[in-house]
Specification:
- The chain has about 250 residues and is mainly α.
- It has two domains: about 130 residues, Orthogonal Bundle (Arc Repressor Mutant, subunit A); about 120 residues, no CATH class.
- The protein contains eleven helices and two strands.
- A two-stranded antiparallel ribbon has the order 1-2.
- It is elongated.
- The relative contact order is 0.09.
Length: about 250
Amino acid sequence: MEDATKTGEFASQWAILPARVRYDAQLPPNAKLLFAEIAAKTNTLGYCWAYNQYFAEKLGVSADRISDLIRRLEKAGYIVVDIDPERSNAERRRIYLTASAFSLVGGIGENTETPPRQKHRDGIGENTGTLKENNKNKMGLERPKYMALDIFKSIAAWCGDDGELMLAWMQYADMRQRTRHPIGTVATVERACGKIDKLSQGSRPYKLGLLHKATDCTWRGFYPLTKGDEGFTAPPPATDEREEAIEWEN
């Protein structure tokens, strides 16, 4: 095999290995190198579609070992693997970096207990670096590539200056996207926010609890929290009976 450093294959690429991944003692060294390789490919495309065999050749391991390392990175919440059989072979699998890989909040390695909520796609590099300012909310959180700008703005307007609430909304929206029930209209956002406001009665912890519970359980709608749930308050918001989830379009 010809030496890639001599052919100039990597001349226009650079890799990033954030501290959260770099110092995660639960990850083997090759998993961290693989994350850097994925990041290098993400820089130019917004996501990485390279095959396991490609990574295997670069890292000098087997394709099966790459599969295992990808699973470990995904379990840790550092990447999201999106497989769509309807896409062409080269594009069938897309690997996205997550916001939690670059987060300074929480202990290193804590993502392993809550992977669903951590799976918020936030590509890095050229594509996201050139986004216009209206593709970011007030806290600087960037619009996911799959989300229409008017939907993003509607969510951002409801969240206001609350970055944690906005991140919870994005994680919920990402879950909907991954489970093939994307949020497709502003009206959907408005109904969802109305439901959250009604159930929470203005309680911020309750709002976060609703979004996190729906995301973790892969629910399309929202149900009243119960004792033991994050954000639960006693007495809970007044409801005569368990309300039905909103089944939205798309």
